[in-house]
Amino acid sequence: MSMAHATLMQKVARYARDADTGDDSLPDAGGPKPRSFRKRLALFSMGRKGRKRVKRGHLIVRKPTRHRTLFISDTHLGTPGCKAELLADFLRHNEAQTLYLVGDIIDGWRIRRAWYWNDAHNHVIQEILRKARKGTRVIYVPGNHDEALRDYVGVTLAGVEVINEDIHRAADGKSYLVLHGDQFDGVVRYAKWLAHAGDRAYNFALACSSALHSIRRALGLSYWSLSGYLKHKVKNAVEYISKYEDAVAREARDRGVDGVVCGHIHHAEIREMDGVIYMNDGDWVESCTALAEDDAGNFTVLHWTRFAADVEAERAALQARPSCADAAPVTKTADTEAASTAA
Question: Distances in Å between the alpha carbon of 232 and those of 229, 244, 261?
Fold first, then answer.
């Protein structure tokens, strides 16, 4: 392993230890909560010296939804574009027997250029390690941005199994190949310099998208990705996604499995392709999506573009409204419907 990779792993391990505080307590029965969810979230990030932190339980606004299996990928921790606060909120409100981390969880490419890590990124690591401590089987399938972890394939780190790929057996008996998918990207395999150049351009687009998100959030609007919108409007990007999906589905068909779960292209989708079920769990820099399996073996793409506290507050406000015979029916927005599905 190179010196750069060793340094990266040492930094990640140190920050993971700092994040893994072991504070799994529920809210104090007699201690008042800060009234605003935003204030609770801010206090949760404060340092311990001389200031009281809000406990983790104060940020959980409803009973977590339980799934058989969860798949997340392309979180790109270590970059400003990572929606770490939303991801941590998702992990707090969703539990599973098995959690797959399908690559590009930590962005080693960006970290080697410039170190970026804040409290929200720590909270994501803490939630993942907490799940491993509480009995969830956590499986890490490294991608191209966290390729340094491929040197640890076969090793269990803090309760997290690191493997190159896996065959997931669903509740209905079907088998699914689980891999990140960068091996089907010709640019990553044969022109890595071009992949790094494209990564810089992509990060610039994400920075613009994050700035827009901050403005929309200040105005009380839901999350919307500028970079994601542009990507799906560019003809070459659409063709690239289509070719990638064809290559991954063909690999699953050649392996004799029923389907495939992957990441890499930041485009969540479930569809059948020539007798093979292709599933992509999306990302946490643009779409904020995950893939969930229920106890019957059914798969669903979950969208988490709003905090659970905001969704619950809106639901409570709607229920508190006085009924009126001639009132117009309430129409759900796409974000509200997606968040409700995720909840």
Answer: 6, 14, 21
